[in-house]
Automatic annotation (TrEMBL):
Keywords: Kinase, Membrane, Phosphoprotein, Transferase, Transmembrane, Transmembrane helix, Two-component regulatory system. SMART domains: HATPase_c (SM00387), HisKA (SM00388). It catalyses: ATP + protein L-histidine = ADP + protein N-phospho-L-histidine. This is histidine kinase. It holds the Pfam family HisKA. Residues 188-239 form the HAMP domain. CDD domains: HATPase, HisKA.
Length: 464
C-alpha cells in the first residue's frame, strides 16, 4: 500500500503556526499579567488617595481625636460603583474611632508609618483589596500614630483586567493571523524553486540526460548535484548497453551465419538416410536459432529506440510496403498467392519507421511460418481516425482464448513448431508505444484469419 506523501509546504506552515501559537500564548499571558497589575495600580492609587484624605481630616479637640470624614474621599472610591467599601479609623491607643471594628489589616501596620501598605485578603467572605496608612498625632496629650484601614471589593479591578486582557487578546489574535497569512505566502514563494525544478524535470525529454542547468537556492544545490550525478551515471550505463547490444549482434550473428554456411556445404549424397535426417534437424535448429537470435536483438533494438529516438511523422503505406518486400522471401512456394493492397495517398502516424517496420515484418513472418496455406494478403487502409495494417492468411488461425496470451514474450500458440514467441510481443509493444493496439480477427466465409495493427493518424493522435 502506497504511503500518503507528506507536503513540505504543510510541514513548514504547521511548524510556523505552532511557533506563532506558542508566541501568542506567551504574549497573552504577559498581557493578562500586565492588565492585572495595571488595574491594581489604578485602584490602589484611589484607595491610597482616600486614606490620605481621611488622615488629613483628623483633628484634635479638647484632648480627643475627632474624625470628619471628607466626602471627596468616598467620591474617589465611588468611581467603582459596583464595589463595596469598608473602612476603619484607629486611634493611637488602638480604639476604633469610626468604621468597622472587625476590619483588620493582615500585616503589621507599624510599617505603614513610612509608606502606605497594600494587601489582598477576604473580609466578610468577600475578596477585598486593603490599604493601611498612618499619621503621627503631634498633640502631647495624645501622642502616637493614628491608622486608617480601607478595604474595597475587587469587581471593578477584575472588570478592568478582563477588558484590558480582551483587547490585548484580540490584538494578538489579529496579529497572529496576519503573521500566519504572511508566513503562508512567504513559504509558498520560497518553495517556488522546487516547483520550477519539478516542472523542468517533467518537461524534460526522456532522451535528454545532459546535466540540469538551473538557478536554485543554495539549499537545493546538493539535490540538483545529485540528480546531475545520477544522470551522468545513467548515460554511461546506456552507452555501455548500446555498445553491448551492437557487439552482441555482430558476435552472435557472424558465427551463426558461418555455421549455416558450413552445414549447407555438407554433401548429403554421401550420407546415409539416418544421417540425412540428423542433418535436416541440424539445419532446422540452426535456422531457428538464427531467427530467434535476430528477434531477440530486434526486440532489444526496438526497446532502445523508443527510449532514445524522437518520434517523427511516418508514412505507414511506405513502411508497410518495405516490410512486405523484406518479409516475403524470393524463394516462397510458387503455389502461395501473396498480395499487397494500399491506398494511393499517404497515411501519416507519429512513430519510428524502423521499429514500425520490425513490427509489421514480425506479423507477416509469423503468418508465413504458422498460418499460410495457399494465400497471404497484406492491406493498409484507413478506418476513421486510425490506419490499419492487416495481415490475412487462409490458415486455421489462433483460438480466441489464446489471443491475450500470444502477445506476451516467449508465449506462443504453436508449441513445438519452432516458434520463439517474440514476434507478436514485438509488434504489440510497438503498437502500444505508438498509442495503438495489436488485434486479431476470426476467419469468416469471406475472409481468413487476420492480424492487424491499429495506429492513430497524426492529426487525431492523443498526446502521450
Amino acid at each position: 500500500m502506497q504511503r500518503t506523501r507528506r507536503s513540505l509546504f504543510a510541514r513548514l506552515v504547521i511548524r510556523v503556526a505552532m511557533v506563532l501559537a506558542a508566541g501568542a500564548a506567551i504574549l497573552m499571558t504577559a498581557a493578562w499579567l500586565y492588565a492585572r497589575a495595571a488595574a491594581d495600580e489604578a485602584y490602589d492609587r484611589l484607595l491610597q488617595g482616600a486614606a490620605i484624605q481621611i488622615l488629613d481630616s483628623l483633628l484634635v479637640e479638647e484632648g480627643r481625636i475627632a474624625v470628619d470624614l471628607p466626602s471627596s474621599a468616598f467620591e474617589l472610591l465611588g468611581l467603582a460603583p459596583r464595589d463595596k467599601i469598608f473602612y476603619r479609623v484607629v486611634a493611637p491607643d488602638g480604639a476604633t474611632l469610626t468604621g468597622y471594628e472587625d476590619l483588620d489589616f493582615p500585616a503589621d501596620v507599624t510599617n505603614a508609618r513610612t509608606q502606605a501598605l497594600f494587601a489582598t485578603t477576604r473580609f466578610r467572605e468577600l475578596p477585598v483589596r486593603m490599604v493601611a496608612a498612618s499619621r503621627a498625632i503631634a498633640d502631647p496629650s495624645i501622642g502616637g500614630w493614628a491608622n486608617v484601614l480601607i478595604a474595597q471589593t475587587t469587581e471593578a479591578r477584575q472588570a478592568l483586567t478582563t477588558e484590558l486582557t480582551t483587547r490585548a487578546f484580540l490584538l494578538v489574535g489579529v496579529m497572529s493571523l496576519l503573521a500566519l497569512g504572511g508566513t503562508i505566502l512567504a513559504v509558498r514563494y520560497s518553495l517556488r524553486p522546487l516547483d520550477a525544478l519539478g516542472d523542468m524535470l517533467r518537461r524534460r525529454d526522456s532522451q535528454d540526460l545532459t546535466p540540469l542547468a538551473v538557478d536554485v537556492p543554495r539549499e537545493l544545490s546538493p539535490f540538483v548535484d545529485s540528480i546531475n550525478h545520477f544522470m551522468r551515471r545513467l548515460d554511461d550505463r546506456l552507452r555501455l548497453l548500446q555498445r553491448f547490444i551492437a557487439d552482441s549482434a555482430h558476435q552472435i550473428r557472424t558465427p551463426l551465419t558461418a555455421l549455416s554456411a558450413q552445414v549447407s556445404l555438407i554433401d548429403e549424397e554421401a550420407l546415409s538416410e539416418s544421417d540425412r535426417r540428423h542433418l535436416d534437424r541440424v539445419k532446422n535448429r540452426t535456422s531457428e536459432l538464427a531467427r530467434f537470435t535476430t528477434q531477440l536483438l530486434n526486440h532489444a533494438m526496438v526497446i532502445h529506440r523508443f527510449d532514445s529516438v524522437q518520434l517523427s511523422p511516418v508514412d505507414v503505406v511506405d513502411v508497410a510496403r518495405k516490410s512486405f518486400r523484406a518479409a516475403v522471401p524470393i524463394t516462397i512456394d510458387p503455389d502461395i498467392v501473396v498480395s499487397f493492397e494500399a491506398p494511393p495517398e499517404a497515411l501519416i502516424v507519429l512513430g519510428d519507421g524502423l521499429s514500425l517496420r520490425e513490427a509489421i515484418v514480425n506479423v507477416i513472418d509469423n503468418s508465413l511460418r504458422h498460418g499460410v496455406v495457399s494465400s497471404l494478403a497484406v492491406r493498409v487502409a484507413r478506418r476513421g481516425d486510425f490506419v490499419l495494417v492487416e495481415v490475412e492468411d487462409d490458415g486455421p488461425g489462433i483460438p480466441a482464448q489464446d489471443w491475450p496470451q500470444v502477445t506476451r514474450r516467449f508465449v506462443s500458440s504453436k508449441t513445438g513448431e519452432g516458434s520463439s514467441g517474440l514476434g507478436f510481443a514485438i509488434a504489440s509493444e510497438v503498437a502500444t508505444t505508438l498509442m495503438g493496439a495489436l488485434g486479431f480477427r476470426e476467419p469468416t466465409p469471406q475472409s481468413g484469419f487476420t492480424v492487424f495493427l491499429e495506429l492513430p493518424l497524426l492529426n487525431t493522435r492523443s498526446a502521450p
